Amino acid sequence: MEIKTRDENDIKVIYLEGEMDTNTSPEVLSELDNLRNNGVKKMLLNLEKLDFISSAGLRVLLATAQQLKASGGDFRVCQLNKEIKEVFDISGFSTLLMVFDNETKGISGM
Amino acid sequence: MVDDKDRSQSGGNRVLSNLTAMGIFGVLNTSFVVSYVSLIFSPSCPEYFAAAVALFLLGGCIVSICLASLSSYAGTISMIQDVPVAIAALIAASLATILTNDNPQLLFANIFAAIALSTILTGISLVLLGYFKLGNLVRFIPYPVMGGFLAATGWLLFKGGMQVSTDVTFDVLHLGAFLSQVNIAQLLCGVVFGVGLLLLNRFFPASMFVMPGTIIGSIIIFLIVSKLMGYSTAELQNSGWLLGSLPDQALWKSTEFPDISLIDWGAVLTHAGGISTIIVLSVISLLLNSTGIELIAGRDLDMNRDLKATGFTNIGISFLGAPASYIFISQTALATRIGAKERTVGILHGLFLLGVFFAGGSFLTFFPKFIAGGLPLYLGLSMLWEWLVDLRKSMPKVDYAIVFLIVLIVEFVGFLQGIGIGIVVSVVIFVFRYSSINIIKNVLDVAKLRSNKDRPITDQRLLDYNKESSVILQLHGFIFFGTANSLYEQVKLMAAEKKDNLKYLLMDMGLVQGIDSSAVKSFEKLLQHLEKNNISLALVNLPLGARQLFEVNGLDEESRAGLHFFEGMNETLEWCEDNLLAAEKENMQKLQEDGAYTGNEFLQAVYGDMMAALDVQILFETVLERTSSYTEKIEVIEDEVLYKQGDANSDLYFISRGQVALLESAGEGQQRRVRTLGPWSITGELGAFLGYHSSHDAVVTKKGVIYKLPASALKKLEKDDKALTADLHKLIIQVLGGQLSKTSRVTEA
Questions:
Q1: Domain extents for chain A?
Q2: Average of pLDDT values for B624-641?
Q3: Taking CB atoms and an 8 Å cutoff, what residues of chain A touch B615?
Q4: Which among A13, A98, B76, B107 is most buried, taking Cβ atoms within 10 Å?
Q5: Phi, psi torsion values for B405, nearest 5 degrees
Q6: Residue-level pLDDT at B320
Q7: Global pTM?
Q8: ipTM associated with this complex
Q9: What local confidence, expressed as pLDDT, does residue B2 receive?
Q10: Which residue on chain B is closest to A100 by alpha carbon?
Q11: CB-CB contact of B345 with B77 (8 Å)
Q12: What is the average pLDDT value for chain B, to the nearest integer?
């Protein structure tokens, strides 16, 4: 599991690569918690290169989104590949999270 | 056929009852035949009076014996009827004016032909009604009309009784003239006899001896008093106290058939209207009489059997030139009341008429006329009391008014008109009353009733938020213009109350018995209103033929965008939910792109439920991973069958990806979807844990990955790893619990 980030003004764009399963999800949660604890209030996750996401991975995304939004921040995801989009649709995350086609649209208005 | 109640009567009593009935009805009906023939033939061809009496008596004899033997009610007394006779008399009078009046042979032949034609056509009509089992149509005649018919029959009997007792036509509007023409002593005797019989029967309703005892006692008293007063038989006859109008010679010697070559069919057929009236009245009268007998006998009759029997008998007697004949309600009722309920009574009555046919009717000269008139007078009063006085207590005022109206119209206009107007008024009142019945049985929304499609929590919550967007109306009863208009008004009100929120109106017609064309027009009006307000109408489970009725009237899916037809409520709900969710998500997406929607509130609202669901999903995935050495991974494709309904399946299936439908047999090769299961679901649990045979087919509807845990592997797992087994059981409880909670909101339509 590889996690890369870049800054776009006050927005942290996070790139997830590989498989986000029961084993790797704690690592992602830890990274996202660190960013949050370091004052990041707006996150945009680019999932283009994420090959697999399990329910444990979804749980990490949901928990982070809830905490950020509850503290007045923002949490968005973009560029979902076919497999991840299917999981999002089945689990209801497409409706629950702010999902955008690409980074530009995701950053816009954030 | 004799029922148990009848069998309770001793043999001696039964014989006495039957002989009494034979005597009473034999004498009465012989008198009726004489008066009928007088009415039809005397004015135009009196030379044929004896011939006609002989033919009518023979016809009456055949009718009585045949219908007593063949009818579904054993105690049937049948005879030539007064209504066809009255119209036949009008036809005879008309024929006399059309044809040469000074040729009685010609008139007799043509009157005979007209009556024979009306009787044979009546017979054919009755047979056809019976053959096509349409006899029960009479059961649709409203109860007040039935009451009115019986009360009017009672009134006519009363009038007839007055006339027979006094030889003067009774007219209620000219009572003074009537009283000035009659022999008051004779009238009083008839009235005292009739009223006395009525009172005795009301005070001693169970006694079968009241009627024959009163009749025989009255005859004896009359003859003794007359003797004591010094009157001879000849004096009594001359002063009109006795019957005795029959010819002295044996009637069979007078039997004569007309010369067929003299029949002018053109002249006869000019009376097609009168003949048709006889047919219609005879059919209605027979059916009403039979229904009346049902009320008196307290059991259902086989109408179709009686129609065929009466039809064939009428076809037979038409060759004798006898008018339409059928069950005699008043005499059958009287026979029933005096305990003569066996087939013997009708047969004996027929034999009595045959006896008169062969022996002549001179013995009737000793029968007092006031008793012959007092009997129908009693019957009339009895029926009037029952259907005008007693009925008043048990009938709504409006219905009672119909009964009274029918009697008035029968008296002052005509019998057919009375029944016809009674039916029309009853139908109008019925329509008015039925229209006030609410055909909406239940009103539901999508929050209460869901399709069986598995949906994520977010979709379920969105549907909850949009519960005002759809309404399910469960309809019942019959939809015609009255109820459809009421439905239209209610829907309009409902749409107004929900303002712009209502988008889908689902009408479940599974309990609707039928829809008529007038209702389709109301639906068109309803659809126009809904389309104007952007509301879609879905008609579900339409009764047979209703969809074609809609489509023939231009209400089809192609030309009306707002109209949809469905065959099951589940697919309708799924369609409605899909559309609602698609519209809602599109709206959310649009707002999101415009920056007007953050999704924060929605996320906070469903967060708890989503986390709980994710915890179960995580457990599902963890358990699957840990049990991988016990399970078999199957890559499934669409239409693949996991197990069939009735199979002794004992494998447990874990759906990791894809979709599986559970289908149940709905008969006639059809299947009904019970549920759709998506990822993180389990199926096959009843067989795996309880050993039940499968109650449904499990068919893959979307390719994916399924893990199968065979029963043998489950047993091995339970032995090998207690902790993993505990987690597996925990998972199954949580997953099945979740599936069960969704099922409680799912319709089985």
A1: 2-107
A2: 92
A3: 59
A4: B76
A5: -60, -45
A6: 96
A7: 0.62
A8: 0.92
A9: 38
A10: B593
A11: yes
A12: 84
